[in-house]
Amino acid sequence: MKEGPRANREIEVAEVQLIDETGENQGTVSLEDALERADEAGLDLVELSPNAKPPLCKLLDLGKYKYQAQKKAAEARKKQKTFDVKEIKMRPNIDIHDYDVKMRNMRKFFEHGDKVKVTMRFRGREMAHTELGAKLLRRVKEETDKIAKVESEPKLEGRQMIMVLAPR
């Protein structure tokens, strides 16, 4: 399959709505007449709106048209905001200093515009005390309340409790 709009002899209809190189609407003309005009002007007949009745065609330089479309697409991609989901892993009986380090990293991730997935892992008998993990995740939520919003509340999935936070 060919990329981009159909042009010149690829157009397979009897009549087209023609717009000339100056941008003026010439009305409905036969395909042969439109191709003749394109040849005279040294341009291509390009199908801009193939689904219209009759299809809308314009006299223009196909190479230049494709180049401009490519540049426009690249510009749109450049403006897109991409973000990562960073993961912070904790245990229910985490030490104060370790907790502070993880919170510092979390703030750094939010400043960069990334989402953070906080994973609370339970091992062995810790499964009997999942409320300790939930309490710790509530504490994380409260401390990051000013800079982040909760995208998914803490939920237990097997041996881990997961919460996703996004920057405000």
Would you write up a description of this structure?
The chain is of the alpha/beta class and 168 residues long. Helices cover 35% and strands 32% of the residues. The chain is built from 4 helices and 8 strands, in the order E-E-H-E-E-H-E-H-E-H-E-E. The chain has a 4-stranded mixed β-sheet. It has a 4-stranded mixed β-sheet with strand order 5-6-8-7, covered by helices on one side. The model has no long low-confidence stretch (mean pLDDT 91).
Report the count of strand segments.
8
Q: Could you spell the SSE succession in H and E letters?
A: EEHEEHEHEHEE
Task: Supply the number of helical segments.
Answer: 4
State the share of residues found in helices, binned by percent.
25-40%
* Average pLDDT figure: 91
What structural category characterises the helix and strand content?
alpha/beta
Shape: rod-shaped
Low-confidence stretches: none
Main-sheet strand order equals 2-1-4-3
Task: Write down the Rg.
Answer: 30 Å
Distance N terminus to C terminus? Answer: 44 Å
Query: What profile does the largest beta sheet have?
Result: 4 strands, mixed
Percentage beta strand = 25-35%
